[in-house]
Amino acid sequence: MCVPLWLGPGGNNAAAGIAQSQSRAMIAAAARRRDSSHNELYYEEAEHERRVRKRRARLVVAVEEAFTHIRRMQEEEQNKSPGDVMDPREAAQAIFPSMARALQKYLRTTRQQHLHSMESIQQHLAVCITNNMTPKAFLESYLIPGPTLQYGQDRWLARQWTLISEASVTSGLKEGTIFLLKCIEFSLVVTTKKIPYIQLAEEFIDPKSHKFVFRLQSETSV
């Protein structure tokens, strides 16, 4: 036999209180998890920034020491015969090992190792030596974010680009046309704009048309 159980006003209030307590507990637990996630992300980013600054400082010191060694080599080679003088390519290969470790660590830490090959770095170093550039100029390609410059035609000719566009590729370009050039490593979004058109017209103004005469009238004494 089933006996019906009737809950009075007090029972309803108790059930509502339990539900509210459970809701508050769930909200508090979610807030704790959110705070924990925020803290973990904060410390991860702070640690990454600290590691980048450390690698950057070591790289700058290594490159400056390498360029100082280059200047000493250039001073010594002034007294050598022309046949014994090293060309920029040989000089770059000679000093590159002294900075290679610091540069590789920095590129790995900043996730740029896939953008710069060792061959490209040595070619860039040879260009800097040839033009008597400073260590800061050499490091700009790696310390300042921007398009990656790689030397050698084989790198560009071997790259395959894909053009993605809503407009037909056989139609002419129009202002506002947007298309995408995509390859394996990165994508370029291109927006076309009209070249500014300036129309100049010559108008003759008679010099006599804007002349005026200023006449002074003598005041009458009272």
SSE topology:
Layout: H1 9-77, H2 88-109, H3 118-130, H4 135-143, H5 153-157, E1 162-165, E2 178-182, E3 187-191
Antiparallel strand pairs: 1-2, 2-3
Helix pairs in contact: 1-2, 1-4, 2-3
Explain how this protein is built.
It is a multi-pass membrane protein. It is found in: Cell membrane. Belongs to the Vang family. This protein has helices at 9-77, 88-109, 118-130, 135-143, 153-157, and strands at residues 162-165, 178-182, 187-191. It is built from five helices and three strands, in the order αααααβββ. It is mainly α and 222 residues long. The protein folds into two domains: 18-148, no CATH class; 159-195, no CATH class. Helices cover 53% and strands 6% of the residues. Strands 1-2-3 form a three-stranded antiparallel sheet, with no helix packed on it. Strand 2 (178-182) and strand 3 form a beta hairpin.
